[in-house]
Amino acid sequence: MNGEAAEAEAVELVSRLRSRFQGALVGLAVGEALAAPAVFGRPGSFAPVRDLLGGGPHDLPRGAWGDDTAMSLCVARSLVASGACDPVDQLARYRRWQRDGEGSATGECIGIGAGTARALVDGRPDGAVPDGAESLARIVPLAMRYWADAETLQTAVRTTTAVTCREAATFDAATRCAAALLAALRGAPPEDIVEAVDAAGAAASATPLVVPSAATAASPMVVLAAAARAFADGAGWKDAVLRAVNLGGPADALGALAGALAGAHFGVEAIPAAWREALAGRDEIEELADRLLADALVGLVA
Predict the structure, then answer these.
(1) Is the dihedral of CA 93, 84, 223, 23 positive or negative?
(2) What is the pLDDT of residues 262-272, one digit of tens each?
(3) Which of 12, 61, 68, 181 has the CA that lies 20 to 30 A from 22?
(4) CA angle (195 as vertex; 261, 22 as ends), nearest 5
């Protein structure tokens, strides 16, 4: 291969990666925003979600997102600013979001789970409060930053998860979530992406998705499995994410995870343009995805 051909191939590779990286982070945010009308609802109790509308129990504006995306962006900003996975910096950013709404879509802390709220106040997880599935969205920027270093990724996953979570099942779900995202970002076929959460999928296929109340945490493993099933069954990004959010219950976590997986697999162009244009904080989200890609590429050649 001559120099020009090699350069053209490298440019094409970076272009594909950029689409996948932006697809993962933008897909996460659009997926959670789509879920707004379905959060805490039982299937059949709400009009099926077909468009980006806003509303729901938190009365979100169209294109706005809640805690899953907000805390994921805290992790992304921390990775970019610190150059590494720094749980102390992450905790400080989470607390500013909780207290002041810093970095949120609406200027206030929206949708925070009981376990997460307690952990941010106390500085450690509370043994009396179950972990919530919203913790899985925070894995997305880690998979992006460490897409070329699976060993460092797994260390970062455990470190980040431990800021607010304590249950072994949550760490298992986080590890599987990271593996699935890594496969998607690397261009693996859907069956390989779903295989990364196979144990969770087997459990969820035998047990209906639990639709919790506002005060009850959903199992991270069950939510991960349901999001992976929606991704596998969907015909493209839009169909996959609508399948996920219309399950109701923890629809915000389902939409965020399915949106990230499908976005990493299909690329950002697969997300409807009108929804991307309406997304709160879109410019910063795209910029963070680009910064994480740049840092990942630097780490690859260092």
Answers:
(1) positive
(2) 999 999 999 99
(3) 61
(4) 15
| Joined tokens for residue 300 | 């690859």
**Rounded-to-integer distance, Cα 234 and Cα 80, Å:** 32
**Residue 79 in contact with residue 142, Cβ under 8 Å?**
yes
Two tokens, residue 278: 């309406």
- The single residue listed with the structure tokens 């997926």 is 31
CATH number assigned to the domain with residue range 3-301, chosen from the 4 options 3.30.530.20, 3.40.50.2300, 3.40.50.720, 1.10.4080.10: 1.10.4080.10
288: which 2 tokens? Answer: 């963070």
> Where do the domains of the chain lie?
3-301
User: What is the chain's percent helix, strand, coil content, to nearest 5?
Assistant: 65, 0, 35
Phi, psi (rounded to 5 degrees) for 35: -75, -10
Tokens 């590494």: give the residue: 84
Given a cut of 90, whether residue 283 has pLDDT beyond it is yes
Give per-residue pLDDT as tens, 202-237.
444 434 455 544 445 678 988 999 999 999 999 999
Task: Please report, in angstroms and rounded to a whole number, the separation of the first and last CA atoms in the chain.
Answer: 24
Euclidean distance between CA atoms 204 and 133, whole angstroms: 14
pTM score of the predicted model: 0.92
Q: Which tokens in the block code for residue 139?
A: 């894995």
Both tokens assigned to 43:
């299937």
Q: Tokens at residue 97, please?
A: 């979001």
Contact between residue 92 and residue 102 where contact means Cβ atoms under 8 Å apart: no
Q: What's the mean pLDDT in 42-71?
A: 95
